[in-house]
C-alpha cells in the first residue's frame, strides 16, 4: 500500500523457554550460570528489507551456541552483524576468544561454530545471506566472532544505529534500495577500497551529516561552535562539510535555524521567565535587531508573540509502526535465500 510502513513484527516475552523456541531458528541458547534465577526479558522489533532482516532488540543475559552438529544440521549460510548499543560479548570460535563492548559491531558467520556469552544488552542485528555480500566481501568470514576496528568501523556502527532508528518511519517500497545501500556500506566500511567507498558515498555522507548534526545539537549554546570545531569532530575538510550541508542551506544557516528552534522551545516553557534578550544571547544572538529579524523570518511571529502562546501544542505527529501478525522474525530468517 502506498505510504504504508515497512513490514515489521514485534516479539516480546518474559519466559526464557519461549525465547529459546523463538531464537532456535538461528541459535541454541542457555542461561548463564552466573545469572541464577534472575528475571529474563526479550523484546524484538524486526523489519524485512528484501533479502535482509534487521532487528532492534533488548535482551536478557544468555549464552548463544552454534555447535558443529548444529552447523551441519541446519546448513545455515548467513551472516549476522550485531551493533551493541549496550552490553557486549565474549565469543569462542575455532580461531580463539574474542571480546567486544558497547558501541562495536560483531560479525558472525553462521556456517561456523560459536559460543558467545552476553550480558543484558540492547542490540541492532542485521541478518543477510552470504550470496548478497560475498562478491563484495569474500573475506568477511575471517571476522567471525570478532569486531572490525578503525574509523570506518565506527562509521558502520553509526550507520546501523541510524538505520534501526529510522526504519519505523520509512515507507514500504524502499526496501530494495535500503538493502542495496546497506550492502554498499558494509563493503565500504569493512573493505574500504576507493571503489567501495565511492559506491557507498551517499550512505557515508549521511552518517557524517548525522555526526555533525549531533555535535551541533549538543553545542547550540556554546560560543565555541564553529566550522573548524565541527570539521575536527566529524573528521572532514571544510569543503566536505559545506557539501554535506548543501541541502540544509549551508552549515551556518542550519546552526542558526537550530538555535532559533531551541529558543522557541525555551520561550514556550511556561516556567521560563528570563528576558527574551538574555535567552537569545545564550544562543549566540548578541544583537537584538538581528535576532528579531531572524526569528520573525523563520516563524512568521515575533518572539514575544510566541511567548504569549505558551500553550500552543507543538507535538510532532508520529506514524504508528505497521506490525505484521502473520509471521514472526524467525519465519523471515528461515526464508532468507541461501
Automatic annotation (TrEMBL):
This is Transcription regulator AraC family. InterPro entries: AraC-bd_2, AraC_XylS_family_regulators, Homeodomain-like_sf, HTH_AraC, HTH_AraC-typ_CS. The keyword Transcription regulation applies. One of its GO terms (molecular function) is sequence-specific DNA binding. Residues 311-330 are annotated as: Disordered. Residues 210-309 form the HTH araC/xylS-type domain. Keywords: DNA-binding, Transcription, Transcription regulation. The keyword Oxidoreductase does not apply. Pfam families: AraC_binding_2, HTH_18.
Amino acid at each position: 500500500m502506498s505510504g504504508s510502513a515497512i513490514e515489521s513484527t514485534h516479539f516480546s516475552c518474559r519466559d526464557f523457554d519461549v525465547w529459546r523456541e523463538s531464537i532456535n531458528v538461528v541459535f541454541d541458547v542457555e542461561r548463564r550460570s552466573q545469572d541464577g534465577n534472575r528475571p529474563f526479558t526479550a523484546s524484538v522489533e524486526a523489519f524485512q528489507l528484501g533479502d535482509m532482516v534487521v532487528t532492534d532488540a533488548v535482551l536478557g543475559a544468555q549464552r548463544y551456541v552454534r555447535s558443529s552438529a548444529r552447523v551441519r544440521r541446519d546448513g545455515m549460510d548467513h551472516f549476522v552483524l550485531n551493533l551493541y548499543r549496550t552490553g557486549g560479548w565474549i565469543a569462542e570460535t575455532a580461531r580463539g576468544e574474542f571480546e567486544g563492548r558497547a558501541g562495536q559491531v560483531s560479525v558472525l558467520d553462521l556456517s561456523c561454530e560459536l559460543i558467545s556469552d552476553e550480558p543484558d544488552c540492547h542490540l541492532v542485528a542485521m541478518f543477510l545471506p552470504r550470496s548478497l555480500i560475498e562478491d563484495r566481501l569474500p573475506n568477511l568470514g575471517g571476522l567471525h566472532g570478532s569486531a572490525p576496528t578503525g574509523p570506518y568501523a565506527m562509521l558502520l556502527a553509526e550507520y546501523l544505529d541510524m538505520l534501526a532508528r529510522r526504519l519505523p518511519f520509512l515507507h514500504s517500497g524502499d526496501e530494495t534500495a535500503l538493502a542495496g545501500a546497506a550492502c554498499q556500506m558494509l563493503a565500504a566500511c569493512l573493505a574500504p577500497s576507493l571503489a567501495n567507498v565511492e559506491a557507498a558515498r551517499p550512505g557515508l555522507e549521511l552518517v557524517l551529516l548525522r555526526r555533525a548534526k549531533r555535535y551541533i545539537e549538543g553545542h547550540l549554546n556554546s560560543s565555541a561552535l564553529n566550522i573548524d570545531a565541527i570539521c575536527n569532530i566529524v573528521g572532514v575538510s571544510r569543503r566536505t562539510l559545506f557539501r554535506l550541508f548543501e541541502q540544509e542551506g549551508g552549515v551556518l544557516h542550519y546552526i542558526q535555524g537550530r538555535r532559533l528552534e531551541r529558543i522557541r522551545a525555551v520561550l514556550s516553557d511556561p516556567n521560563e521567565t528570563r528576558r527574551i534578550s538574555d535567552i537569545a544571547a545564550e544562543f549566540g544572538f548578541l544583537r537584538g535587531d538581528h535576532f528579531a529579524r531572524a526569528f520573525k523570518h523563520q516563524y512568521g511571529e515575533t518572539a514575544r508573540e510566541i511567548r504569549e502562546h505558551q500553550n500552543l501544542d507543538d507535538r510532532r505527529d508520529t506514524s504508528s509502526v505497521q506490525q505484521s501478525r502473520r509471521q514472526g522474525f524467525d519465519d523471515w530468517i528461515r526464508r532468507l535465500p541461501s
